[in-house]
Design goal:
This is B-glycosidase. It comes from Massilia pinisoli. InterPro entries: GH (IPR017853). It is built from 14 helices and 17 strands. It has 415 residues and is α/β, with parallel strands linked by helices. It has one domain: TIM Barrel (Alpha-Beta Barrel). It is globular. The mean pLDDT is 96.
Amino acid sequence: MARRPGIFPTFFLSGFECSTFLWGDEKRRRNLVAETGHDRHAADDYRFLSRLGIAVAREGIPWPMVDRDGGYDFSSIDPFIAAMNEAKVIPIWDLCHYGYPDDLDPFSDAFVDRFARYCRAAAEYVVPRVRGPHFFTPINEITFFSYCAGEWGWAAPFHCDRDDRMRLRLALCRAAIAGVKAIRAVDAEARMVHVDPLVRVVAPRDRPDQAEAARNETEVDTFLAWDIICGKKHPEFGGAPDVMDIVGANVYSFGQMEYREHGPHAPLPPGDDRIAPLCDMLETVWKRYRRPLIIGETSGLGHGRTGWLNDVMQESLAAVERGIDLQAICLFPAVDMPDWHSGAWVHNGICDLTDDNGDLKRVPDQEYIDELRRWQKELNRVTRLDEDPFSDPVELQDVIDAAHRLHMKPDKNWC
């Protein structure tokens, strides 16, 4: 019997890049599951996670590809369900990972209604086929989605205006809230993980006049979608703490940025004295919502993956020692992904991908895995799934005990 049972069966999670947006000037439909070969290697990919001691993975249902004029064909996800069941890994289902059906206007009431119907249909399909508990992310990264599709014009609906960015975010929040309620009409115990980037923006050193705009990005804009979903803002949309449920904060080095008036902000370079400790940023989220918290995505790049994991673990344990309810850390992605713009491999996965006679061979980053193993042992966590990884939830008291034993100090000098 766990002294302090966690929500998930393992503390370390993972996931697979599953974007399905209409992308770029050519406005072509992307399918990152196919581009990374996850659709062809699902069984191997999930067996790999099982051998790593990871029992939960973020996985996508491609809304634009399963929605057939109001009807649904979910057969394309059957191989993933079979692979997860065989490997004893449960999903956090991403129901909208930047993609939606071609004939929908995301600013319309019809978008909200159709998304809710789809969420209900998706839940009706997966709940009886996958061992519970059941986890869903209705709309992935609402804040970032609204930027890249509402202001920067990278993805559909290809708008390039700050007002449209705000309108898109409100529409996505309305849809996400409606989706939660539709899912819970199928499974009242379903858990929700609302994922968005954890962001901090500072003014350029030579532009103190932009300090207020940077502060607004950090203290207001970063949190608006979560504020709406939990009912702090726009309560007429139906948000509430139980709708919010679990907060998923995505943590990357480029989440701390220097303000730019036009276009994406500029990531702060390593060693910049304006970088804040991750521990402090996590504490801000915790104090704002008092909801269970996970790091919804994190990874370093290239040879920096091992050092990045070490830094994130130290900061996370410093946060746990402060009393923050950190339930899990998601090492994302499990396999590498292409840069959306250039197509070059990012080298941020637990496995890299190399061409093997037209196929994509998985090449584990052994140093990254060794660092994961070190932290699993430090936290008294399993290093490989047993026959029934769901018989007990993760023992969070072990994580708390490790945090007090190691007594990590917050450090802004990340790897």
